């Protein structure tokens, strides 16, 4: 058994993987138009939005670049509230577009809360945008984006969301929540290989984009929007085979019923968290309702993080360590994808064995029973 | 039979295609490092350069964006000499970075010549960069880039080259020729699916890049250069499976012997051109030594371009029409990839039949005999 449990790229489901070998088609013709049209339609269903999220060639980082490049003009005051590594990267990306940044740092492992946002709005009333991270992959925090967005006045700053590691694996409903811009990516909750970014803008954001000169031609979303007709086209060559793979990933989620899919991911997360705690380990994120349904960050006993990771690697399971200051004290296990009870057993049993081999005793039976109780809740 | 003969994406060879279904690997680990290291090494061999071309997620347009974004600061005077659609796009991309453009337009179908460049250098002595297109896909012109670069003084403007549709299918030797920056892409002469751009900088260009603030985080080549060590890493998630496919495409070229590969592509081009002329058709590019080894643009009898294209499509062969003002008077046939005599017969015989069905008579035997003579030269 060999399984990628790192926070992206993820283990790509077979039906998605196999499309990577598709016979190539021209991107100027009815076959691609039909693929692209399906992709736009299914993505719109997934995000419950009227205008489709736009796929662009690139990584999640590229999608964040496109989001900022289309909505931030040099000198714009931008509030960045960050609780981890990816919040800081979002900030760096905005600063490249000339944003005048107002920074609020929340300790790693904690979440962005409404009071942080209200303080920021009071301190910087003329901000033009707020940068938020949905699922902070470096710590396994799920930020309460719906509540956060709900606390910003309708005529307030644009709310820009990094949903790179949330989209697909958990609800991300920008139109319903009142978000203005979203960046996502193919290789995490959408279960495709890396190489496609997604960018969605609200009507208000599209009108802001008209005023902004995007410094990059290939990331100018206005060029994309022109051709989103019945027979949609891209302004330049798209990564055709990756689009086909991404479409399949989205279809897997939609055909399972997206609400049920999201509930299942959250259930797996709760089961793993409970099992980990039953084995006497601590989770980085204290508050249960701020734990990511897609990724769990587990504190390791002193100096054991690397040993546990390499022991798991020896069994075939590849997990991530911490990032930044947490590099040597965490392991992070991603579970964005099509997992169920067998994978939960695999993770718990293997983690238990790795700890056991390193002299850390725990009751694996109790851990599995705890997990099973949660997995049996429907 | 069904075959893509459009100027990219191309028909992907089977051995390249199949790697698109590879089992996903983490981009932080020895497996990816080894793949990436091989890719950098083989690309360096192909371009005969000391420092490797850098693969980035994106299209050829994205690679051009990265080239300009890393080397052009707002206000820099930049000379753009264009002979087609893609020369104009390169110009537009540079203008997004704030270039102050000095424009020279050469009629479509003609090539950029040393005298154009010398005039430009005299008129704009303080230019910081010159934009050149290697293979102008809209017209099938191959510009004499080695001669052009040789005519620019060593301390003159940086020479930036759009090699998006040349790399792989014809010699592109930037270090030997004295080019400073090159943008290329995966989906044409390198025979992989679209989604990877390549950017190469000379030592002089790297030192210029130090002074430029790249407006895009994901396209900042300095972030890439940091980790090009023995176990190279990318600054953010790369399109892993596309890198594996691109590596295979490059390996096919190198294992055939790149000089021999290039000679074969050029021979196919000459054979097709001669056959087309033997059928009484005109080529857009008058000068034989300015015709692209990768793509042939054929003038169609009045009002027949669309008919011929759709007739070829009916036989399974997908070719392109003209671009811009040439939209309805040309067909363009790409032959960047692993073709030989059978494909030449297929193209000539099918084109002859399409014309014949539309009432245009030609001697197909003579066309094939003419082509055969050229294909037999070794």
UniProtKB/TrEMBL annotation, chains A, B:
What's in the keyword line of the UniProt record? Aminotransferase, Pyridoxal phosphate, Pyruvate, Transferase
Looking at the record, the residues that make up the Aminotransferase class V domain are: 23-323
Q: Name one GO biological process term.
A: glycine biosynthetic process, by transamination of glyoxylate
Q: Which residues carry this modification: N6-(pyridoxal phosphate)lysine?
A: 188
Q: Where does the chain cross the membrane? A: none
Which residues are listed for substrate binding in this entry? Answer: 332
State if Transferase is listed as a keyword: yes
Annotated GO molecular function terms are: alanine-glyoxylate transaminase activity; L-serine-pyruvate transaminase activity
* PANTHER family, per the entry: ALANINE--GLYOXYLATE AMINOTRANSFERASE, AMINOTRANSFERASE CLASS V
Output this protein's name: Serine-pyruvate aminotransferase/archaeal aspartate aminotransferase
Annotated organism of origin? Thermanaerovibrio velox DSM 12556
Give the lineage. Answer: Bacteria, Thermotogati, Synergistota, Synergistia, Synergistales
């Amino acid at each position: 058994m060999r399984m990628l449990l790192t926070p992206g790229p993820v283990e790509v489901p077979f039906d998605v993987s196999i499309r990577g070998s598709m016979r190539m088609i021209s991107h100027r013709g009815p076959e691609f138009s039909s693929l692209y049209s399906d992709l736009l339609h299914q993505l719109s269903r997934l995000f419950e939005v009227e205008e489709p999220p736009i796929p662009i060639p690139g990584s999640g980082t590229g999608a964040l670049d496109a989001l900022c490049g289309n909505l931030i003009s040099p000198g714009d005051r931008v509030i960045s509230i960050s609780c981890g590594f990816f919040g800081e990267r979002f900030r760096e990306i905005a600063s490249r577009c000339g944003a005048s940044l107002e920074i609020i740092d929340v300790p790693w492992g904690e979440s962005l809360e409404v009071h942080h946002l209200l303080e920021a709005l009071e301190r910087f009333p003329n901000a033009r945008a707020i940068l938020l991270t949905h699922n902070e992959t470096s710590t396994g925090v799920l930020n309460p984006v719906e509540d956060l967005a709900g606390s910003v006045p309708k005529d307030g700053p644009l709310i820009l969301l990094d949903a790179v590691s949330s989209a697909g694996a958990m609800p991300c409903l920008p139109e319903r929540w009142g978000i203005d811009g979203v960046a996502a990516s193919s290789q995490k909750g959408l279960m495709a290989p890396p190489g496609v970014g997604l960018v969605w803008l609200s009507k208000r954001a599209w009108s802001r984009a008209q005023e902004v000169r995007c410094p990059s031609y290939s990331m100018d979303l206005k060029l994309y929007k022109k051709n989103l007709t019945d027979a949609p086209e891209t302004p330049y060559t798209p990564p055709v085979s990756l689009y086909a793979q991404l479409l399949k990933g989205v279809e897997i989620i939609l055909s399972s019923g997206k609400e049920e899919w999201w509930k299942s991911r959250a259930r797996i997360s709760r089961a793993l968290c409970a099992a980990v705690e039953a084995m006497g380990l601590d989770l980085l994120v204290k508050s249960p309702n701020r734990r990511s349904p897609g990724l769990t960050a587990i504190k390791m006993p002193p100096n054991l993080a690397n040993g546990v990771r390499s022991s798991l690697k020896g069994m075939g399971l590849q997990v991530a360590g911490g990032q930044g200051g947490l590099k040597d004290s965490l392991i992070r296990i991603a579970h964005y994808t099509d997992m169920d009870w067998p994978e939960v057993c695999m993770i718990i049993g293997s983690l238990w064995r790795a700890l056991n081999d390193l002299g850390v005793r725990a009751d694996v039976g109790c851990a599995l029973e705890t997990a099973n109780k949660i997995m049996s809740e429907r």
